[in-house]
């Protein structure tokens, strides 16, 4: 892919001319144009993702288009209320003043799109950035060139070049962009690259939103509905070929139901495998094979589950896995599922708390006390009970990680706030503060003492 760098000077000039951002009416019009441009390209998008890594039409509609339309719908409906800000009531010290918090655009923002959901996870943050009133540079993933070309065409149609511009290219392009003084950087990708993005933003004191990943665990309790849990885990593991930041990474399985659950799970994986997307690059497939070879050499038992379409990695359940295997140390990002049986939940919770905080923790059981204990005693970006993946698409929930799985949040109002600065505005109407100003008289001493005594009660 040829390197294409946008005209940053034009973007900064436009920003300087309107530092408070576009008015709400123009933001709404821009979102309307984006919506129309996406609708006009639904069929070409299906073709592009099929060409990039074999993603099926139904999965494109459900995982790329549906969540994006949800973002657009919510932002277009709620934009005026979000941009209005909110009134803040004073306490005793600030009596006589009025205050509001007004969200303002951060300025010039940079959005890095990932390769796994190259359409939705590129345009979703763009919806939030536009709603907040920013100027934006979008860098699609070079690993999905057909989708990147479609995104460039779509953005050129929907936005003026001094409003939203596209950068095309590989790692060198990304590094050149990060050397520039953006006001906010939104990155979706691996934890390792996320650290590099955060380090590159630091010299410019740019804020960052990092949507990362990690090893999202599944805990299947003894009271789980075996058939429903197996189907939900299989769907989450095979969605997008397992290449999802919130994909179930490994599974802790209550020993009392291990045999029937594994039977149900492998059957569901085999049933779904023919419709699975392929590997984004041959390097991803080679990495899956290396993980399998390492696990097999160290004693894991491999349970193949069904026939995959051409270009995809075969789904495989691994039992007898141990902490020393690479598959238990790295984010898998593919259709391999290590299973660890347990009799006692305490070591499971201790293991989870000893490692990096995952993006999502999945729990399957029908016992509210079992579920609540795991929620209370573990840390993760989110918790999903008796489902996988779908919580990502909830338009009214903030989505984000904690620690190694991410910084900040996205989606809906949380996404709008990620690209906004909440500016406090305080207006003095009849404040009593001058009564406490020097010279310090007996009355001032008495009033200061009385005020302090009241506040510290």
Explain what you see.
This protein is of the alpha/beta class and 457 residues long. The protein has two domains: 8-212 and 404-422, Aldehyde Dehydrogenase, Chain A, domain 1 (3-Layer(aba) Sandwich), CATH 3.40.605; 217-395, 3-Layer(aba) Sandwich (Aldehyde Dehydrogenase, Chain A, domain 2). The chain is 43% helix and 17% strand. The strands form three sheets. Strands 10-11-12-9-8-13-14 form a seven-stranded mixed β-sheet, sandwiched between helices. Helix 3 crosses helix 4 (57-84). The longest helix is centred in the first third of the chain and has 28 residues, at 57-84. It is globular.
Fold blueprint:
Blueprint: H1 8-17, H2 24-39, H3 42-53, H4 57-84, E1 86-88, E2 97-105, E3 108-112, H5 120-131, E4 135-139, H6 145-158, E5 164-166, H7 171-178, E6 184-188, H8 191-201, E7 207-211, E8 217-220, H9 226-238, E9 250-254, H10 258-272, H11 282-297, E10 301-304, E11 316-319, E12 336-342, H12 345-354, E13 360-364, H13 368-377, E14 382-385, E15 406-407, H14 412-418, E16 420-428, H15 442-455
Parallel strand pairs: 3-4, 3-6, 4-5, 6-7, 8-9, 8-13, 9-12, 11-12, 13-14
Antiparallel strand pairs: 1-2, 2-16, 7-15, 10-11
């Amino acid at each position: 892919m040829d390197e294409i760098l946008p005209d940053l000077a034009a973007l900064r000039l436009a920003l300087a001319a309107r530092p408070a951002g576009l008015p709400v009416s123009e933001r709404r019009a821009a979102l309307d144009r984006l919506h129309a441009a996406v609708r006009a390209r639904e069929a070409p998008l299906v073709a592009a993702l099929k060409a990039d890594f074999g993603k099926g039409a139904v999965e494109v509609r459900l995982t790329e288009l549906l969540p994006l339309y949800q973002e657009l719908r919510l932002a277009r409906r709620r934009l005026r209320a979000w941009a209005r800000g909110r009134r803040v009531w004073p306490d005793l010290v600030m009596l006589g003043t009025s205050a509001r918090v007004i969200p303002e655009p951060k300025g010039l923002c940079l959005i890095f799109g990932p390769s796994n959901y190259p359409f939705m996870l590129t345009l979703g943050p763009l919806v939030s950035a536009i709603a907040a009133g920013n100027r934006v540079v979008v860098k699609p993933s070079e690993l999905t060139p057909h989708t990147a070309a479609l995104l460039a065409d779509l953005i050129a149609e929907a936005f003026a070049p001094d409003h939203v511009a596209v950068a095309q290219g590989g790692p060198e392009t990304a590094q050149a962009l990060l050397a520039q003084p953006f006001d906010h950087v939104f990155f979706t990708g691996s934890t390792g690259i996320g650290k590099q993005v955060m380090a590159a933003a630091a010299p410019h004191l740019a804020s960052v939103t990092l949507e990362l990943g990690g090893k999202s665990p599944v805990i299947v309790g003894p009271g789980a509905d075996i058939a429903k849990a197996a189907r939900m885990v299989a769907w989450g593991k095979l969605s997008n070929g397992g290449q999802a930041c919130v994909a179930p990474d490994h599974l802790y399985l209550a020993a009392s139901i291990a045999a029937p659950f594994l039977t149900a799970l492998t059957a569901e994986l085999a049933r779904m495998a023919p419709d699975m997307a392929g590997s984004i690059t041959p390097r991803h497939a080679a990495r899956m094979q290396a993980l399998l070879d390492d696990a097999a050499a160290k004693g894991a038992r491999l349970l193949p589950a069904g026939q995959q379409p051409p270009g995809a990695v075969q789904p495989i359940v691994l039992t007898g896995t141990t902490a020393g295997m690479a598959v238990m140390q790295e984010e898998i990002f593919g259709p391999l599922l290590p299973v660890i049986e347990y009799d006692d939940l305490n070591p499971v919770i201790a293991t989870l708390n000893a490692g990096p905080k995952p993006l999502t923790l999945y729990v399957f059981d029908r016992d509210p006390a079992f579920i609540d204990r795991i929620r209370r005693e573990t840390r993760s970006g989110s918790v999903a009970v008796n489902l996988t993946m779908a919580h990502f698409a909830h338009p009214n929930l903030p989505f984000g990680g904690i620690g190694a799985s991410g910084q900040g949040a996205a989606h809906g109002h949380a996404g709008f706030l990620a690209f906004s600065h909440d500016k406090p505005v305080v207006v003095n109407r009849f404040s009593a503060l001058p009564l406490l100003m020097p010279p310090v008289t007996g009355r001032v001493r008495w009033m200061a003492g009385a005020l302090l005594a009241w506040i510290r009660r």
